[in-house]
Amino acid sequence: MPLIPKTFFCKLLGCTWQHHVDDPKTVWTASKNMCELEQESGEEPRFFQRCVRCGIEREWDTKGA
User: Fold this and answer.
1) One digit per residue, pLDDT tens: the chain, 65 residues?
2) Which residues in 24-53 are b (16+ Cβ under 10 Å) and which e?
3) What pTM was computed for the model?
4) H or E element that contains 20
């Protein structure tokens, strides 16, 4: 995401952070015996916080701290 200058309210009051998760697409395929579905996901979910006003993003650990 490109760097966006902070708005007046973010400079005055600070950013208002909201939690977000980018969950990768899950792909379901049939197994070799064609009786069961197998789940495949190439990436891990990305946890981050985004400011509601200016859109700046920062990393957020999965423990919720």
Assistant:
1) 555 567 788 888 888 899 998 888 888 888 888 889 888 887 888 889 999 988 899 998 656 55
2) eeeeeeeeeeeeeeeeeeeeeeebeebbeb
3) 0.59
4) strand 17-22
